[in-house]
Amino acid sequence: MKHFVLAITGASGAVYGLRLAEELLRGGNRLSLLVSAAGFAVLKEECGLDWSGSEDEVAKTVREHFSASPEALSFFAADNWLAPIASGSSAPDAMIVCPCSMGTLSRIATGNSGSLLERAADVMLKEGRPLILVPRETPLNAIHLEHMLTLSRLGVKIVPAMPGFYHKPQTLEDLVDFLVGKLLDLLGAEHALFKRWGDK
Question: What does the CA dihedral 73, 75, 81, 84 come to, rounded to 10 degrees?
Answer without folding.
Answer: 0
